[in-house]
Amino acid sequence: MRATGDSVASDVSHWTCRAGARTRSPSSAGVPPKKVNTAPRILMLAPEPFFEPRGTPFSEYHRIKALVELGYEIDLVTYPVGQDVHLPNLRIYRCARPPFVRRVAIGPSFRKILLDLLLAFTAFRRARPGRYDAIHSHEEAGLIGVWLARRLGIPHLYDMHSSLPQQLANFSYSRSKLIRWCFERSEQAMLDGSQVVITICPALQETAVATGAGGRAILIENVMGGDVEPVADVIPVRERWDIGAGAPLVLYTGTFESYQGLDLLFAAASHLATTHPEARVLVVGGNPDQVAAAKAAAERTGAPLVFTGRRPAHEIPAFVSACDVLASPRIAGTNTPLKIYSYLRSGRPIVATDLRTHTQVLEPGTAVLTPPDPAAFATALARLLDDPDERRRIAAAAAALAADKYSRASYLARTREAYDRLLGAGAASRPTGGSGARGETGPVATL
User: Fold this and answer.
1) Nearest Cα to Cα of residue 119 among 43, 11, 53, 58
2) How many CB atoms are located within 10 Å of the residue 405 CB?
3) What is the pLDDT of residue 409?
4) Per CATH, is 3-223+407-423 categorized as 3.40.50.2000?
């Protein structure tokens, strides 16, 4: 069941409620109210389709999962599109859906501006005095969150997944100096108005420091990446997409946005075909139009590409298990791709471009790093496909790096530290699953 805005009140009978949900002792019975432990209640604003298997929604999912595990209750206000998820102590309120909106592309757009206005309206209706202990905002929703937090007199946490001005360049959205100035001012206002700032990579931490928010910023890298809950059924990847059992296989997973470097990967695949005619490059992701255009180009050039289109997140581990080498050809931006963290733990070696988007995480020997050049990328792929011992060595070094620096335990510890700064140490010291705050009866979110 989904809640749109405050319509949840009329649908409460359709929601699944927790045993021991928030109640009030009836004063008419002469029974003194029973004192119960309370969990801090957070209003979270996420201006994305939640959930979709792509960067920021994955990050938001794992942030919420960590917070409810640490003992917080989350009311999430988000877009009216996205897949259903089930997490304890999470309620989801979706803003109204314009009649023409069925999907939301990555990056800045007029559609997102409209949805952000509707999200703001829903957030204003939720944000009543005394209801929440803090507001936690992702991306550009920080502008809404800062204003609401000041109005309610509660602290605000800004979850900084990217630099807004940099998005203009990454998505080639606009060269207007006025628009860039607006993005810069908006980012500064969100940083200045937040008591705590979470950054998800070293480059963003440096941005926060440069803008004067370094003392309030904490780096929490997306170490869970694209990890999902394991599933019992493993799809037969090679058989399903007609890839020979012994064929050398390179895997790319992700979106088809220009900064991902797919043109580089496709050109490298053409080079690889001349030296390894049996090799295949499996491409997981992309909407139907993008996949159709890429297929047509591959057929013209003879590149050994196999396209699956967008697949459910729980299938990705099966694709990883089926391949020999993982590719990350990103050519722009400084944020680390979320998939890199799960790739490190995958048991498969990584070939990536030697740009900061990768090198701020990948260390020498934990991956093969190449210039963003098709021939160089193809040479690196061929080297690993020809040398099983090298593949195993690099994969083992990557797993050791992940265990040492990018573990789930470190992610939880840093998340706890961020909220200790926001609300004080021990704000959510009780176990998850107890009664909530504010004496309201409400639903556990089953979207």
Assistant:
1) 43
2) 14
3) 92
4) yes
How confident is the model at residue 11, as a pLDDT?
30
Query: d(Cα 313, Cα 173) in Å, to the nearest integer?
Result: 28
| Cα–Cα separations (whole angstroms), residue 299 to 270, 293, 302, 303, 306 | 11, 10, 5, 7, 11
Query: Per-residue pLDDT tens for 424-434?
Result: 988 876 444 33
User: What average pLDDT does the segment 306-316 reach?
Assistant: 91
How big, in percent rounded to 5, are the helix, strand and coil portions of the chain? 45, 15, 40
Q: Which residue(s) pair with 75 in the sheet?
A: 43, 91
C-alpha to C-alpha distance for 228 and 53, rounded to whole angstroms: 10
User: 3-223+407-423 with 237-405: one CATH topology?
Assistant: yes
Token pair 């992700």 in the structure block, residue: 254
> Per-residue pLDDT for 413 more than 60?
yes
Q: Distance between CA 135 and CA 155 in Å, rounded?
A: 7
The C-alpha atoms of residue 352 and residue 175 are separated, in whole angstroms, by: 29
- Find the DSSP H helices in 276-328: 288-301, 316-322
CA distance 77 to 123: 6
Residues 255, 54: contact at Cβ < 8 Å?
yes
Q: What residues does each domain of the chain span?
A: 3-223+407-423, 237-405
pLDDT-derived band at 85 (thresholds 50, 70, 90) equals confident
Distance (Å, rounded) from C-alpha 109 to C-alpha 42?
Answer: 28
Query: pLDDT tens digit string along 329-387?
Result: 999 989 999 999 999 999 999 999 999 999 999 988 999 999 999 999 999 999 999 99
- Cα 149 from Cα 94, distance rounded (Å): 20
For 286, what's the count of Cα atoms within 13 Å in the CB-facing half-sphere? 21
Give CA–CA dist 162/201, Å, rounded. Answer: 9
Which CATH architecture describes the domain 237-405?
A: 3-Layer(aba) Sandwich (3.40)
pLDDT score of 20 more than 70: no
Q: How confident is the model at residue 37 (pLDDT cuts 50, 70, 90)?
A: low
